[in-house]
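Can anyone check this?
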Amino acid sequence: MSGRPHVVAVGVFDGLHRGHRRIIDTGRQRAGEAGDDVGLAVVTFDPHPDAVLGKAAAELPLTPPREKADLLRAWGVDRVHVLPFDRELADVEPEEFVERHLTSTLGMIRLITGPDFALGRGRRGTVAHLAALGERHGFAVETVPLLLEHHGAVSSTRVRGALRGGDVGFAAELLGRPYSIVGRVVHGWGIGAKLAYPTANLDPLEPRFLPADGVYAGWVHVPGAAIGPGPAGAWRGAISLGLRPTFDGHDRALEVHVLDLDKNLRDMDLRVDFTAWIRGQEKFEDAASLVEAMGRDVAHCRDLLPGV
């Protein structure tokens, strides 16, 4: 058994939206009520169980494993266990899963989860089944109600739907924060610099779900740069995501023009926060027409991103 008892939240937690935050906050509150020696742990899975079991098409995560762990720790979680999900784990009986991954490893005294949660072979480990196990093995089970807003539950599915439509504003409302991507600046085509709007080409550090192709306004967090006008010193950015149709591109690219910052960003890790949709990807007749559109995009970004 773990040397320190824990309240444990179990789930996929893809996206870590505001509904997930309620579960984590409840777990942290229960751990505090149980005593100073009680920690809060999260057990989650990668890849998504539905994709492994064929219940849904495999999709890239909203929050890749490393980002998920970092955000959970920022929310006050003491331990994060990411279990590799495969057919073997799916076939484990609920009793064995609880003993192997929750009680013996984490000293679980309380399980926190959502109302539709189930684990183990055939999803036999329902909330009622787990509560019965808890009575025998000394842990409590608590479910946190769904967060209902805008005619439905706040869910990862709705976040993905918003991003697919380019509605990063609604996605941010569901998440409780802007949808962000962290990427390393890599060598690009150099087209932006020739057009007087130099762009940083970002290669995401972890494979992840991308919003719809288009041009967005967003905040760019640049490590080591002077303090910008935005939240946490971020800089205004015009973000382009797509195939660069004016130049007959075939590879999806993520580029950002950082406004008012004259700095070599090559090989740096930038975080871009998607704030607002500006327009879809367009194929322009020539470079001059593209430059005019980029000028309008930059002006729009200034209007949409007031300083703090």
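Reply from J.R.: I decoded it. Residues 287-304 form the longest helix (18 residues).
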